[in-house]
Amino acid sequence: MDDVEHERTCNLQERVNMSVAKNSLALMEPCGPQPDTGSLPLQVEEITPSWLTSALAQSHEGVAIESLALEDVMYGTATKVRVRLAYNARGRELGLPESLIVKGGFVPEYRNLNAYIYEYEARFFKEVHPCLRANVPACFYAQTDSRSGQSIVILEDLRSRQVEFCRVQRPLTFAQAAANLDAQARWHAQFWQSPALENGGELAWLAAQDPLPDGESGTYHWGQLKPDVFASYTQLPRGAALPKRFHDRDWMEQALLDLRAFDRIGPMTFLHGDVHLGNLYFDRDGTPGFLDWQSYRRGPWAHDVTYFLISALDIADRPRWERELLEYYLERLAFHGVDNPPSFESALDAYRRHIVYGLFFWLVNPVEWQAEINNCAVAPRFAMAALDHEIHDLMGR
Fold this sequence. Notes:
alpha+beta; Aminoglycoside 3'-phosphotransferase, Chain: A, domain 2; 2 domains; 5-stranded antiparallel β-sheet; 3-stranded antiparallel β-sheet; 15% strand; globular; CHK kinase-like domain-containing protein; Aminoglycoside_PTrfase
């Protein structure tokens, strides 16, 4: 059963106090997570039929798991476990998937470091996903155990629907990029200048997009800017592929601070926050889908659009297509309900300024997060865009 068959409409005017009347209806997929006072598995071996029964039964009464097989364990910042399930009669009657993905912090070192990331994704599926107009994997359970720092989501196994997962080494076609921009415009329009994102709004708890935040939230960013750390990345293959001017640590810091100041003006909306090819897929009918909701934010539209376009397009295609694609995005914003979208001139200015964010983050991307072959593919895409748009003179001076 696909996403559309699970979805139902919900009134966003009541749910999130939306201000754009055209967007007051959105699709809602009943993810089903309910408050759970029980503990969550901390190790892959603790994903048992008993625990999965208790988890799935919260939204599917009477369901029980009779047996399971751990088919695949994909370790990373978050560990994903593919499980194959045998249901009781009730589960078979409901047509529940035989294969599901259990995602959480099953590596102690990562869980201690990234507990907030896991909790943030669980909260997405519990509080944001039900009213977000986006193609997202179906969710069957989402929960956080504050005592252990563990958070777990149970998601559909997209492999069973034969979706096409995007890869950094396979840049998108013009049509694919346009389809993705339309999808982004849909949710950007949904939350364009929404009271839900303001202080006192239902989504005021969302982190604000900030390229160089102060305090604890900026620990990673400032840590990567330490002179010795930053210099070490310039010595890696991805650094060797970049023009020397972008090895200037002081320029990079000032450019990020310039972007930070720029982002404090202009309309705010809901952002995915990390729209690169590794987090994208296409359904068999060509509908774009979005993975890894661990970095969603409130912030300027140009963050998502710039990061996506430059990381997803081939270096030779991007200069030929970017203006037309940017114009298309603005048209789709209007189509989806934004009464006064940015002018092309102001949009292009915002697009240019946001290039520095991707340039920095793909230059200093730890190999624990992305293999060097991926960093070597994407960092030069941002560097070439920065050269084409003369970012070195526009910012950081």
